[in-house]
């Protein structure tokens, strides 16, 4: 899978060679960089050999810079499909992930999406990127505007006055970061935090929250626990189902089967369907017809 990073600061900064090589490692199908250097000049450079792009990045200072190493999953492995993708209107686009989109032969999915964004306003383009793909991250540049849309495990952190977005640090979760370059200064327009979604729960007063892509456990009162059905479970127990350690809740018409360690909901099985559950600490099998 590809890898990329976005860095910016109030003052010109240099990027360490070892860091650029670390981002590029294991991505042999093209390399590229977009940024505004320390003199306020916008620069774009792509090459199929890593050492040329590493040298281009490390030999100058930057106010903002994004770079990408490609591991091709669709389209030809050539310089046109290397990131940043340069659209027909001259906008720049980086992507880490895969999206499903119709495309001509030889085009990558990123190239097809970049040219689709040309027909949209800035607001529409951001909304499109937030919806595009399931586990995808995007950097989209309509200079002087830049947006990083995060649907992966990228983090935002600050190191020695340099703001860094990559998926290797221990920074903050975020959904979207929008930037504006004005008079060679980079201003943060907005930072959108990830939404909290309830994915499953335990009846004994525990609830799971998914905060972006970080799952954590918090205690809540049982009265506030969401209910799947109007009636309460007839019984609940731990056991084995298809060779997995599971937690089972029995209702009047269905069995709810959870992973016994993470409590993720695995299956909802109607009672009329035949299956086998071996209840913990018991030698008998429960057959449901």
Would you kindly provide a brief summary of this structure?
Helix content is about 10%, strand content about 45%. With about 290 residues, it is mostly beta strands.
List the helices and strands and how they pair.
Layout: E1 3-13, H1 17-24, E2 31-37, E3 42-47, H2 50-58, E4 62-69, E5 85-86, E6 92-96, H3 109-117, H4 122-131, E7 137-142, E8 145-150, E9 155-159, E10 162-166, E11 176-182, E12 185-192, E13 196-202, E14 206-211, E15 214-219, E16 235-241, E17 244-250, E18 254-259, E19 265-270, E20 275-279, E21 285-288
Antiparallel strand pairs: 1-4, 1-10, 2-3, 2-4, 5-6, 6-7, 7-8, 8-11, 9-10, 11-12, 13-14, 14-15, 16-17, 16-20, 17-18, 18-19, 20-21
Helix pairs in contact: 1-2
Description:
Residues 196-230 and 281-289 have low confidence and may be disordered. This protein has three domains: 3-192, Aminohydrolase, N-terminal nucleophile (Ntn) domain (Glutamine Phosphoribosylpyrophosphate, subunit 1, domain 1); 202-226, no CATH class; 227-289, no CATH class. It is 12% helix and 45% strand. By secondary structure, it is mainly beta. It starts with a strand and ends with a strand. The strands form four sheets. Strands 3-2-4-1-10-9 form a six-stranded antiparallel beta sheet. A six-stranded antiparallel beta sheet has the order 5-6-7-8-11-12, covered by helices on one side. A six-stranded antiparallel beta sheet has the order 19-18-17-16-20-21, with no helix packed on it. α1 (17-24) packs antiparallel against α2. 29% of the residues are buried.
